[in-house]
Amino acid sequence: MLRIHFTDADLARVQVAARPDPLWDIYFSLCRFQIRKGLWSYAGWHRSAREALHGKGLAPAVRNVLLPLYPGGTYFPDFLTPGEASEGLDAGLDAILGLPRQRILRELNILDQVNGAPAWTRQLTDIGPRKEFVQTVRAYYDVAIRPHGDHIQAHIDADRSVRARALLDGGMDGLLAGLGPYMRWRRPVLEVEYAEDRDLYLQGRGLTLVPSYFCWGAPVSLADSGLPPVLAYPLRHAASRTDGTGGTGATGAQNPRAPLAALLGTTRAVILQATAAGATTGELARAAGVSAASATRHTTVLRDAGLLVSHRHGPSVLHTLTPTGAALLRPDPA
Fold first, then answer.
1. What letter would DSSP give residue 244?
2. Is 22 exposed, middle or buried (0-12, 13-18, 19+ CB in 10 A)?
3. Fewer Cβ atoms within 10 Å of its own Cβ: the N or the C terminal residue of the chain?
4. Structure confidence by residue, pLDDT tens digits, 242-275
């Protein structure tokens, strides 16, 4: 159990990341290659990523370089997920290059004690091997994650809509109480299911919540409590289709043109427009002037067309646009 202790100052400094953190996504996505639990939810991505990595000749680098440093166990080095990555992949990788060698060596020693680490990892204390490692990380990201960026961002946007609703309805207590099922808010402590038993005292530093598409199961925090506090947590997932029709996995391969004929009509246009700011089924029904059952049928068509995503929010279902849905509503610049 991880117990995160808040003060009033910390509650005022909680924030939810607005976009994917590329280095956390790299870590969690590599876990998906090592841990089969929950793999059903990533079937489309897992298949396409493996094929792409093999096609680009990166499979040996993933197996021999990345997986030993990003193990699916109880510890991986904090230096692999610097806070600067919130500004993008380049900023995060530059931060890794600029770290002092003493810190890298210290964390590699911990990794070796906990999971075992190949002898070559000690070379990362030198800038030359570290640059080569960073190039490998970048290549992996470009092949395995970047092509699915829009799909991942859509899920994060949907999650942020849920968090915003919780904040508006119940304040910060409501937001923190709605982070389950692996977290429980007992003011002033957030209890998190964790691989080890420890306490994290925020002491006025606040907490950054990082939603990650590839995180499955319990959230993950940094091992060093002296670093700026971060908690990466999983997004909600629906089962991926296996019938070859596109599915909801992070494949990003949906064809938006095929279902457009099913979307013609005033009611669905109104529902799609109302979904732009995030809306429950009841709110969509009122906006379109139809019954809740009718609104549910329309949102099912829109969801199957890849234009919106739906997540349960307490007793309600919250709908938000996918990038394809947002593009459909965007005015034609011509």
1. S
2. buried
3. C
4. 333 333 344 433 333 334 445 557 888 888 888 8
Q: For residue 313, which phi and psi values (nearest 5 degrees)?
A: -130, 95
pLDDT, one tens digit per residue, over 87-141 is: 999 999 999 999 999 999 999 999 999 888 899 999 999 999 999 999 999 999 9
Q: pLDDT digits over 165-223, tens only? A: 889 889 999 999 988 889 999 999 999 999 889 999 999 999 999 999 999 888 999 99
Look up residue 179 and give its two tokens: 């982070």
Full set of structural domains in the chain with CATH? 2-16+150-234 (no CATH), 260-329 (1.10.10.10)
Q: Is the separation of the CB atoms in 124 and 75 below 8 Å?
A: no
Q: Alpha-carbon distance 46 to 60, whole Å?
A: 17
Eight-state DSSP code of residue 62? I
Q: Do the bridges between strand 279-280 and strand 316-321 make them parallel or antiparallel, or are there none, so unpaired?
A: antiparallel
> Is 5 strand, coil or helix?
strand
Handedness of CA 177, 183, 184, 185 (dihedral sign): negative
Tell whether the torsion through CA atoms of 269, 274, 280 and 284 is positive or negative: negative
Listing from the earlier edge strand, what are the strands of the sheet with 189-192?
183-186, 189-192, 2-5, 198-201
Distance (Å, whole) CA 254 – CA 264: 19
Using only C-alpha atoms, the chain has a radius of gyration, in whole angstroms, of: 21
Give the tokens for residue 324.
């394809």
> In this structure, are residues 66 and 76 in contact, taking their beta carbons and an 8 Å threshold?
no
> Two tokens at 39?
């793999």
Give the distance from CA 167 to its chain's centroid.
20
